[in-house]
Amino acid sequence: MRSMFPDFPRITAALFTPTPVNSLLAVARARGRIPAMKILVIEDEKKSALYLEKGLRETGYEVDVAEQGDVGLKMALDNEYDLIVLDVMLPGRDGWSVMADLRKAGRTTPVLFLTARDTVDDRVKGLELGADDYLVKPFAFSELLARIRSVLRRNPQRQPELVKVGDLELDLFKQRAARAGKKLELTPKEFSLLSLLARRSGEVLSRNIIAEQVWDMNFESDTNVVDVHVRRLRSKLDDPYENKLIHTVRGVGYVLNEQA
Ligand code: CA
After folding, report:
1. How remote is the CA of residue 244 from the centroid of ligand 1, in Å?
2. Helix runs in 60-134, H state only
C-alpha cells in the first residue's frame, strides 16, 4: 500500500503499536523461551534502517542491520538468518549482486527485496534471481510484517524438520512420532508436548513453561493438566520400553533425556 503522506514512517509507526500479545511474545522470546527469528536488514538509508530495526525488534524478531551490500553479504554468509530484507539500491554492491552471490554460494535464506522503482522489470529480475517476495517503497510497516510472515510460513525449512533423541524420531511437519521404528499413536496435544520436550531435550522444563507452550495459556492455577498429559504420553512413549525418556525432576518439572 502506497502512503499518500510524506511522513509515512511516523504515521505507520503510530498505527503499529505492538498489541499486548506481541509484547508478551517479545518478552517470552527475550527470556529465551521461544527462539527468536533472526532477520538481516540490508539498507543504506539510516532512517529507514533504524525504523525497520526498531519495528521488527518490537515485534519480537532479532535484527541485524548492514548499511552496505558487501558487509551485508558477508553477514548473510557468516550467520544463519531466517530472512533477509534487502534494499536494491545500495552504494557499491547493489541488492541484485548481493542476492546473486548469496544464491551462488548455495544459501537459500529467504529474501524479501525492497525496491523504490515500481517497474515490472525490477520485480521479474528480483524473483528470477531467487528473491521470495518484494515490496515497493514507500510501504506501510504492517504490510512489511505481513510479507515477512508469509515468506517465513512458506520457508519452514530453517526449523529442523526431524528431531531425534536416542531411538525416538519426530517428524515435526508430518506430526509423526516413532520409537525404535514403531509409530506412536499420539493425540495432537500429546504430540505437541512430546515435540516440546524433544526439541529441548536435556533441558528441565517447568510445568508452567510446558503449559504456556503447549496450551498457549498460563496454567499457574492448575498445572495438573500437564501432569495428566505427561502420564498419558509416558504410557505410550516409555511404558513399553526398558529405557525411559521422560524424567520427572521433583519440584521443577520434566526433562526428556536419552540417559536416565
Ligand atoms: Ca537504498
Report:
1. 56
2. 69-78, 95-104, 120-128
